[in-house]
Amino acid sequence: MIAVDHGFPPELDVWLQRQQTATTIARRISIDEAIIDARIIGATQGAAAWYSLTQPAQLIGQWISTLQHPADARLGCLLSTAQY
Predict the structure, then answer these.
(1) What is the four-CA torsion angle of 73, 75, 78, 82, rounded to 10 degrees?
(2) CA-to-CA dists, residue 20 to 11, 17, 24, 44, 58, angstroms
(3) N or C: where does the chain have the smaller number of CB atoms within 10 Å of the terminal CB?
(4) Which three-class secondary structure string do you get for 46-73?
């Protein structure tokens, strides 16, 4: 079972249906030059289970920053800074 947001690209829908692991697809959103986040637009049943949810639809629209563990968020910032 999968869940997708309105306007989800059909080619990704087919790909997501084939996934056997916990998979999410997020759309990057730039809030301003310094703040960038992403919202989940597609999720598998495995992804829902990973976040202790019963349905993948519960992930649709969630901000990645609110789901991400703080230590992972810090590491992401460090890696992003090191890239530049």
Answers:
(1) -130
(2) 17, 8, 12, 8, 19
(3) C
(4) HHHHHCCCCCHHHHCCCEHHHHCCHHHH
Nearest 5°: phi and psi at 20?
-105, 0
Please, what is the Cα angle at 45 between 49 and 15, to 5 degrees? 140
Tell me the three state secondary structure of residue 44: strand
Burial of 22: CB neighbours in 10 Å, binned 0-12, 13-18, 19+: middle
62/40 Cα distance (integer angstroms): 6
Sign of CA dihedral 4, 10, 50, 79: negative
Q: Is 19 helix (H, G, I), strand (E, B) or coil?
A: coil
